[in-house]
From TrEMBL:
It comes from Holothuria leucospilota (Black long sea cucumber). The lineage of its organism: Eukaryota, Metazoa, Echinodermata, Eleutherozoa, Echinozoa. InterPro entries: WD40/YVTN_repeat-like_dom_sf, WD40_repeat_dom_sf, Wdr73. GO terms for cellular component: cytosol; spindle pole. GO terms for biological process: cytoplasmic microtubule organization. This is WD repeat-containing protein 73.
Amino acid sequence: MSVEPEDDWNWMIQSMKKYAHLHMYDLSQPTSVLEWMDQKTIFVADSSSPNGSYEMLLLSLPLKLTNSADDQLKLSKDRDFKIVCGGFHQQPVHAMAMVSDQLLLTSSPSDTDEIILWEIKEDEDVITQLKTHQGQRSGMSNAPFVAANPRTDAQVARGSFLENLVVVNLETGKDLWSYEVEDKPCRQQLASIDYIDDCNLLVCNASNGRLRIIDTRSPSSNCSSSQPSSSSIQLSLTSSVSLKPATWSCSVNFHSRHRRVGTDLKDGSR
């Protein structure tokens, strides 16, 4: 189902009306990835490049956005993003995950589900490549998603399809866990991967929006799933996770019509 430009415009106007204060900024290049690093810093990666090098930047938010609500109404010198540090990738970045305050992971299209570990050197204003981890060669170019374990810097989940979903030890490069396919693989493409605690993954099916909670301590058959209602199944499905201490968090499915479905992971209700 395609989205008409007029629908996009109407959705944007209606969204803008819901905010008491709306700040809009321009980025120098089209962006493929925009993720929070912390409360005051974001990561952006270019989606196009005139010379074959794709820029990655850490940007600090303007003080106007991080100040209190009363201070935001006052004049401020720092009204734009500032570059904290940056680096270059030879391919467009598909996904990013923070491993620690100084380490991040990126993935790009490849036939091995390649992920790259980068080090953030704020004192030198650069992001430098440390090592590359490659999976099994699939014979086709895939763009894997990545998620960092919130309890340890050494473990990350990686996968572009449910059938090649693995947990990797960054220090050794070895797979600690992989999804076991009991029947003939049907190549269930993923739209996102998230950790909801140190052992459980939440993955979203790109074609139908089905959510699966997978316990990486157990065989792959021991997993639960939630299926969005038929009215919510659209193109470009994805999910995001908001972690809350000592509770299951809620995930949200976004799709091409700008609607969303919230799911309580404790009982699968919406």
